[in-house]
Every structure is written in C-alpha cells, then in structure tokens.
Write a structure and sequence with these properties.
single chain, 41% strand
C-alpha cells in the first residue's frame, strides 16, 4: 500500500470512529433507556459498571423487545444476559473484557 493510500485509510478509520463513538439514546435527569431486541428470549437481565455488574431486571416492552432504564452521572459499560449468555444490543462503541466477552460503552453527554 502506498504512503498516501495508508494516510487516507487511517484518516477514514479515525473519522468513522469519531462518528461511531456514541450511540444516541435519550437522557433525562441522568437516566437513559437501553433497548435490546431478543426475539424468543426466555430470561433477560442487564449488567453495567455503574451497578458493579450486578444483574438488574429488565422490562419486556413487547414480544422480543426488552429495555432497562439506567441512572448514571458518567460513562459506563454494559451488556445484557439472554438465557444465560452475554448479548449486546446494537452499540457503536465496544470493549473486550477480561473474560473474553465484549461489552458496550455508553458515553454520557448531558
């Protein structure tokens, strides 16, 4: 790959990451709602760093659609547990954890 092509690719990657670094979710009084589509799921819980990853209950809004409201004053990482397995919603920013799974990152922007 030529030098100019490498620079173009690098700039494109940075531009994409900047545009994808945040998933817009409504925030009101430092509370946001995170939604997961999991058709056929029997049991769904939620875990986030702001609650020390203790499983939190979620609400089934409609068949296959689950949601949780999270109160936080800052950024946090999170994931859902669907029928005993880690599952991520469609999130723009992810990180690898120490156990080989990934979690989403919510960037708080009041």
């Amino acid at each position: 790959m030529t030098g100019i092509l490498r620079e173009i690719v690098a700039l494109w990657i940075v531009w994409c990451l900047m545009g994808c670094a945040r998933l817009d979710m409504p925030i009101s009084n430092n509370t946001t709602e995170i939604v997961l589509s999991a058709p056929g799921a029997r049991q769904v819980t939620f875990a986030c760093s702001c609650k020390r990853f203790a499983p939190q209950p979620v609400v089934q809004k409609s068949p296959g659609t689950w949601s949780v409201r999270v109160h936080s004053d800052g950024d946090f990482s999170y994931f859902f547990i669907v029928d005993g397995r880690v599952r991520l919603p469609n999130c723009a920013l992810k990180q690898q954890d120490d156990f080989g799974d990934q979690s989403c990152i919510f960037q708080f922007d009041p």
